[in-house]
Structures are given as C-alpha cells and as structure tokens.
Design a protein that fits this description.
Length: 302
C-alpha cells in the first residue's frame, strides 16, 4: 500500500496545532521566533512527544513491558533511518526538512529514547545523580536538538577576537531545569502511576516516607523537602541563563520568555503551599502576556 504524504506546509501546520494543544507555554514562546525557526521547533517538539507517548500514553500504560521495549527498539531503528533520509509520514517529512536546514547529530535523539527505556522498569531514583541522568536523557537532549535552530549571535562568531561560544552546557541545563519543574508539578500525577521521581535519599533526609507521598500528605516535612527541590530547579535555570546571551538575536527573546514562564511554575507551586497533589500549578494566560515585555527587555542584554 502506497502512503500518500501531506504537503510540507500541511505537515508543519499539523505540528503547530499539536504543539499549541499540548505545550501552551512552550508554544507561546515559539511564536516570538521567525517562521523558519518556529516551524523547526514545532517539528522537534512533536518528534519528542511521539517518543514520550511510546511510554506515557494511556494506551501504552496498558501494554506489557516486552511490547513497549519492542516499540522503543522499532522507534530507534526508524529514527536512525530518518537521519539516513527515509521518509514515511508527515512527521518524517518535517523532520527531514528541519535536519536539512539545521544539521545536527543523531546522538541526542538516541539518548532521549534511552530515557524512555529507563521508564520501562525504573520507577524510583535513589539519588539525584541517578535522576540527573534521566533528566538529561528525556529533556536535556531537547536543548541539544534545538541549539542549532536557535543559532549563535553573529557578533560573536565573526569577531576576530572571539571564538564561537559553545551553548551546549546551557542548553542541557535548561532542559534539565524544565524537567525538574515537570517532576515537581506532576508528583501527584506520577504517584498514580506508581512512580516517584524525587530522590529517595532526599525524602529520607527530610523525613518523608514513600507511604506519605503516596497518600498526599502535605506537612512541614513535605514543605521543607519541596522548598529544597524548587531551589535546585531554580539553580539549574540560573545555569542555563549563562548561555542565553550567546544566542542569535531572533532567538534570545523567545528563549528568555519560555525560560521565565516555565520557571514561573515553581512560584505557583510555592503559592499553593507545595500542595501538588490537589492543585495543578500553571502560569495563568494573563501572567504569560504580562511577562513577555519583561522578557524582551532582558533579552536585549548580552
């Protein structure tokens, strides 16, 4: 049976719609980019979402581990073939176009698939060192996937006194910061799937048991634990800021906006008294719009 591919424009618009539906804060930031860059970011987002759905969709959670493992193997092979030029559907079409416009290595994509493999059997993390590897694989890799799209300010790459800056460390840090924010926001949701991403040694240090977490107990022990976790996430956001100043002018504003808006989720968690079991933390639309001018001002400072 011959597969009829959509037009490139239609395939990109499908990615736009999916990004707008599932990543509202992130999508708002992409609208500040020039068309070519925003479309590439939408394509990469949807590829990452497809990868995540192999493990975290409602349908996938009902499947046996062996089947999920086979799906990941097949997705890895398909990804390798995509980088070799094989196009099967609309997502492949936009990814191939993105890779042609913004060449990048295969490894971050394979690392993200490895992150999904961690979710197959690993539902607890003994220490932050273990969690950091997971965060790199499922989110830090996104920074590496998108850094070529963002680009570096020509003022730094063409000046005779300046070497081209490496934004990789900051890109990874931003991905890890975003993932830590996701983990803190989604503690209640993850417990419903039998998963605890907060490091077990830190739960013990603050006097919080697994049973209390699963029961959604919000007491002084829990609040101190969460305050510690939020500060760590903010520290990772701070590490990422060092690299934003190197970005191309048309990327600095959207990246600053996305960074500031996502970091704002941490503030909302605090405002909710660290109750992530009964209250969903998100930045209201009005708050997002009000922050855009501030992000623009910050983005002007190199």
């Amino acid at each position: 049976m011959v597969t009829v591919l959509p037009s490139l424009e239609q395939a990109y618009d499908d990615c736009r719609a999916e990004t707008a539906q599932w990543a509202k804060t992130f999508y708002l930031g992409t609208l500040l980019m020039p068309p070519a860059k925003r479309r590439a970011i939408w394509a990469i987002y949807v590829w990452c979402r497809r990868t995540d759905e192999l493990m975290d969709s409602a349908e996938a959670q009902a499947r046996p581990v062996e089947e999920l493992s086979a799906r990941l193997d097949a997705w890895e092979q398909r990804t390798r073939e995509l980088f070799d030029g094989t196009v099967r559907d609309g997502l492949d079409l936009v990814m191939a176009d993105t890779l042609q416009r913004y060449p990048q290595p295969l490894q971050p994509y394979l690392d993200m698939i490895e992150g999904q493999r961690m979710d197959l059997l690993k539902h607890r993390y003994a220490s932050f060192a273990e969690l950091q590897l997971y965060c790199y694989r499922v989110a830090g890799t996104v920074g590496l996937m998108t850094q070529e799209v963002m680009g570096v300010d020509p003022a730094y790459t063409t000046a005779p006194w300046s070497d081209a800056p490496d934004t990789s460390e900051a890109a990874v840090a931003l991905g890890i910061a975003n993932q830590l924010t996701n983990i803190l926001r989604d503690v209640g949701e993850d417990r419903g799937r039998g998963r605890i991403y907060l490091p077990l040694d830190e739960l013990a240090r603050f006097g919080v048991s697994e049973e209390q977490l699963m029961a959604g107990v919000v007491d002084d022990h829990w609040r101190r634990l969460m305050a510690f976790q939020l500060q760590r996430a903010r520290d990772w956001f701070a590490r990422s800021e060092a690299g934003v100043r190197w970005l191309a002018p048309d990327a600095r504003w959207p990246v600053w906006a996305s960074l500031r808006l996502y970091r704002g989720i941490l503030d909302v968690i605090e405002q909710h008294g660290y109750d992530v079991f009964n209250k969903r933390a998100y930045v209201p639309k009005a708050g997002k719009l009000l922050d855009l001018p501030l992000s623009f001002v910050v983005a002007q400072v190199r």
